[in-house]
Specification:
mainly alpha; two-stranded antiparallel ribbon; elongated; binds protoporphyrin IX containing FE
Length: 69
């Protein structure tokens, strides 16, 4: 393992990162479609960066867990 693989509330961190990624994706789509009326800069400057970072870490963990150990 390149990254540590901690267990949080009895589940591996990657599971929680996956739920977080799903939440951020639905949040981003909800703001983009104006279902949620948050300021648009949250869509264009904040959530997409957070989503990109979470998804890259989540994907790397998945790859690491299945292919690199
Ligand atoms: C995974 C989903 C999405 C991601 C990662 C995303 C990301 C982004 C980003 C990074 C920008 C800024 C682009 C720029 O500054 O030129 C943007 C702008 C925008 N997004 Fe999204 N978006 C998503 C979904 C949606 C959806 C579902 C809608 C609406 C149907 C939407 C509507 C818009 C609009 C209207 C803009 C402003 C475009 C402009 O005037 O330049 N987005 N989005």
């Amino acid at each position: 393992m390149i990254l540590p693989d901690p267990i949080i509330f009895n589940k591996p961190l990657n599971i929680w990162l996956g739920f977080l990624a799903l939440f951020l994706l639905l949040l981003q789509i909800s703001i983009g479609t104006r279902i949620l009326k948050l300021p648009f800069w949250v869509h264009t400057r904040v959530v997409w960066i957070a989503l990109l970072i979470v998804v890259l870490i989540h994907g790397f963990y998945g790859f690491e867990l299945y292919f690199l150990r």
